[in-house]
Amino acid sequence: MIQSFLAKNRQFIVTCMLLGVLVGGGHLPPRWDSLLFYCIVFSVALIGFARNVFLNGLLAVSSCFFLLAWFRAFHDVQYDILFCASGLMCLLYGISTTVRFVLTSKEVARPEIFALVNCYLALGYFWALLYTLVEGITPGSYNIPLQYERLMDAMIYFSFATMTTVGYGDMSPHTMLAQRLAVTQAIMGQFYFALVVAYLLNRLFQEKRDVTE
What we know:
The protein contains 8 helices and 2 strands, in the order ααααααβαβα. With 213 residues, it is mostly helical. The protein has one domain: Orthogonal Bundle (Helix Hairpins).
């Protein structure tokens, strides 16, 4: 029964986990907050498990990277290249399997809608980790307000503000690389909505055509 429930509501469960990180994250000590974030994105990857040697190898490398990052965290290293790389790999896995699920679906139903939401949220976290990685390698790449005690919290906020093109102005990229990444994400965010609408309309018209025939 539990297995059947998970199979039917897989995408909804992923949505709840990703939204949980967005709304409830940032309240734990840095090490435990990092562990919670990685466990969730790793679970998202496992839920969308695919029989793909490259992707599964990527997931294994991601686990090794995070374990090394977790060990280094006890030496006052909160966010480093290993942590960002481990999260990026998990999100890449989750995004690729979610896109594959949507493209291979034969109808537009609740799981497909939740899958599209999950892909959008995962993209936001993916860019947040990318920004964190850039700031970690080149400090000062972003103008970060003083109220953010942790870099990842600031970058999650900046990522979703950029992807939705809200642009509050309290955070901004300084270096050329940071600026180019922000512009690229803003363009992708706009194209995502356009592609989703086009995909849904195409599927709905296709279903109507199949019914009439």
